[in-house]
Design goal:
Elements (H helix, E strand, L loop, with lengths): L3 E5 L4 H11 L5 E4 H6 L5 H7 L15 E9 L5 E4 L4 H7 L7 E6 L12 E4 L2 E3 L4 E3 L5 E5 L5 E6 L4 E3 L8 E9 L11 H6 L23 E3 L2 E4 L10 H7 L12 E5 L19 H28 L1 H4 L3 H33 L5 H30 L4 H19 L3 H11 L2 H23 L35 H9 L1
Parallel strand pairs: 14-15
Antiparallel strand pairs: 1-10, 1-13, 2-3, 3-12, 4-11, 5-10, 5-12, 6-9, 6-11, 7-8, 9-15
C-alpha cells in the first residue's frame, strides 16, 4: 500500500497562480466545513479548495470540521525540511502535537518533459508523544511525488514529510490544504480588506462542492502509485531512477511516472544533483557544445602564454601552433572530457555515497589512472602529427617526454581534482578543469616545443652552468666550461 494517493485534477490552477505571490507571504487561513459544502466562499483560491471535496470523497473522515490552506512559492531549487503538520499554536502553548486528519498538496507548476522539480517526500515516520521523537528512528518507506501542474496528492496528516532540494530549475509553487477535525488556534477567514486590496475575489463562479464538472473540465482521475522495493543485499547507493528503470519506468519524457513509493529498509534517502538524472531536453548537447568552445578558447590562451614564456611571442606569434592547440582543446578535451566526467561520476555513485571520502578518492584515482595518461599522450601525438611529424616522431616524443610530463602533472592534478570532485557539481567539473588547464596547456605546450625540458629539473644544474661536451681544444676563456681560470678562482675561494 502506498503512503500517498495522487490525482489528476481539472482544477483551474492558473487562477491560483495569479494570486500565489500575494498569498505566499500571508499567514494560513481557515474555511469551515459548512461554508465549503455550501460553496459560500469569497475568493478564487477558496473556490478551488471547494472543488477538492469531490476528490476526497471516501477518503476524508466524516469527523472533519474545516480546511486550513496556504500557498508556498519556493526559490528555484529550494527544499523544505522534514517536519510534521500540527496545530502550531497549540504546540507552543500546550506542547501537544495535534495533527490534521489529512494533508494534501495541489501542484501549481511542474511537468515531466524536462528536469523535474524537487519531489514532495512522505515517510513512514510518526511523532511519538511519549518518546518525544519520530518513530521509527530511520524511515523504511518513502513516497516521492514529483510536481506536475494540476496534480493533487493526499496523505495521512500525521506522517513526516518534506521537499528535496534540487539545483535551480525554476519556480515551484503549491497550494497546501490540511483537513482538520477541529479549528487550529490562531486560524481565521481571509480578511475582507485583503480580498479587496488584492482583488482575490475575481470572477464569481458558484461552487457547491457537489463534484459536478464545469463545462470544459474533466473530473479528477486517480493515478497509480507504484510500490517498489530496494534490493535486500546491496551496500552501495541506489539511484531512484535506476530503480525505476529496473521496473521499466522513467522519470522524464512520455509515459513518465510522477509518484512512487519505495520500501528501502537498510537505506536512507538523500538528494542527488541534477546530473544524476538523464535529460531529454537537449541541455546535455548544449552543455557539451559550450564546454567544447570553452576548451578551445582556454587551450588557445594556454599556448599563447607558453609562447610568451619560451620567447616565441617576443619574436613572432606562431598562429598555426595556437590554432592547432585550440583544435586539440575543442576536439578532444571538450567532448571527450565532458563524457568522461559524466561516466566517472555515475560509476562512482553506484559504489559510494556522493561526497564521501571513498567517492572522491575513487574519482581522483580513476581520473589520474585512465584520463590522465590518455590526455598527455593524446596531446603529444596530436600536436606532433598536426605539425607535420611522422608516427616515428610521435613514438620518439612519447619515449622522451611522456613519463616525465605525466609524473609532473601528478604534482598538480590530484589535489585540484579532489577539491573539484568534492565541491563542484559534475556538470561544471569540466569547466573547472578547463580553467585549471590554463596551467596545464601552458605547461604541455611549453614541453612540446622544448628539446630537453627535464634539464630544468636537474638539481644543482642550471642552463648557464651545466657542463657539456665540446670538441677537444675548443674550450676558451669566454666559454662557461671548466677551464683553469675557473678552477683557480674556485680554489682561491
Amino acid at each position: 500500500m502506498s503512503l500517498v494517493r495522487t490525482f489528476r485534477t481539472g482544477l483551474d490552477v492558473e487562477t491560483i497562480n495569479r494570486h500565489a505571490e500575494v498569498l505566499a507571504v500571508c499567514p494560513n487561513f481557515w474555511i469551515p466545513r459548512d461554508l465549503l459544502e455550501a460553496g459560500d466562499v469569497h475568493t478564487e483560491v477558496e473556490r478551488e479548495v471547494c472543488r477538492l471535496l469531490p476528490v476526497l470523497q471516501g477518503i476524508l473522515p466524516p469527523s472533519w470540521t474545516g480546511a486550513e490552506f496556504w500557498v508556498q512559492v519556493y526559490d528555484a531549487g529550494k527544499g523544505l525540511a522534514f517536519h510534521f503538520d500540527k496545530d502550531e499554536q497549540r504546540f507552543v502553548d500546550q506542547h501537544v502535537m495535534a495533527h490534521p486528519l489529512l494533508s494534501s498538496v495541489l501542484y501549481l507548476a511542474g511537468d515531466a518533459s524536462s528536469a523535474r522539480l524537487g519531489p514532495t517526500v512522505v515517510v513512514d515516520q510518526r511523532f511519538d508523544s511519549v518518546l518525544g521523537k519520530a518513530t521509527p528512528e530511520v524511515p523504511t518507506r518513502s513516497a516521492l511525488v514529483w510536481p506536475v501542474k494540476g496534480h493533487f496528492a493526499v496523505f495521512e496528516g500525521g506522517l513526516g514529510h518534506g521537499v528535496l532540494g534540487t539545483p535551480p530549475r525554476g519556480r515551484r509553487a503549491t497550494l497546501l490544504v490540511n483537513w482538520w477535525d477541529h479549528q487550529p488556534q490562531g486560524l481565521g477567514l481571509v480578511p475582507a480588506d485583503l480580498v479587496a486590496r488584492h482583488d482575490l475575489a475575481g470572477e464569481h463562479r458558484p461552487c457547491d462542492g457537489s463534484g459536478a464538472s464545469e463545462p470544459g473540465t474533466a473530473p479528477a482521475e486517480e493515478t497509480a502509485v507504484a510500490v517498489l522495493r530496494a534490493p535486500d543485499k546491496d551496500d552501495s547507493p541506489i539511484m531512484v531512477d535506476d530503480l525505476l528503470s529496473a521496473h521499466s519506468m522513467r522519470l522524464l519524457g512520455e509515459g513518465a511516472v510522477s509518484a512512487v513509493t519505495v520500501d528501502h529498509e537498510g537505506f536512507q534517502l538523500f538528494p542527488l544533483d541534477e546530473d544524476a538524472l538523464p535529460s531529454c531536453s537537449g541541455g546535455d548537447a548544449q552543455t557539451a557544445a559550450a564546454l567544447t568552445a570553452t576548451s578551445a578558447g582556454l587551450w588557445a590562451i594556454g599556448d599563447v602564454l607558453s609562447q610568451k614564456i619560451d620567447g616565441t611571442l617576443d619574436k613572432k606569434w606562431d598562429m598555426k601552433r595556437t590554432l592547432l592547440t585550440s583544435a586539440y582543446g575543442g576536439l578532444f578535451i571538450g567532448p571527450v572530457g565532458h563524457t568522461w566526467y559524466q561516466v566517472l561520476d555515475k560509476a562512482a555513485r553506484r559504489r559510494f555515497a556522493p561526497g564521501s571520502l571513498k567517492f572522491i578518492a575513487t574519482k581522483v584515482i580513476g581520473d589520474e589512472v585512465v584520463f590522465g595518461p590518455v590526455h598527455v599522450a593524446g596531446f603529444f601525438a596530436f600536436m606532433t602529427v598536426a605539425e607535420g611529424g611522422s608516427w616515428q616522431d610521435v613514438k620518439e616524443k612519447l619515449q622522451n617526454d611522456f613519463l616525465s610530463a605525466y609524473l609532473a602533472e601528478l604534482a598538480f592534478w590530484p589535489a585540484f581534482q579532489a577539491v573539484n570532485f568534492w565541491k563542484v557539481p559534475v556538470r561544471h567539473q569540466l569547466l573547472a578543469v578547463n580553467l585549471a588547464c590554463l596551467v596545464d596547456a601552458t605547461f604541455l605546450c611549453w614541453i612540446q616545443n622544448q628539446e630537453d625540458w627535464t634539464r630544468y629539473l636537474r638539481w644543482g644544474q642550471t642552463e648557464a652552468t651545466a657542463p657539456y661536451a665540446t670538441p677537444e681544444g675548443a674550450q676558451g676563456a669566454d666559454q662557461p666550461g671548466l677551464h683553469p681560470d675557473a678552477q683557480q678562482h674556485s680554489a682561491i675561494k
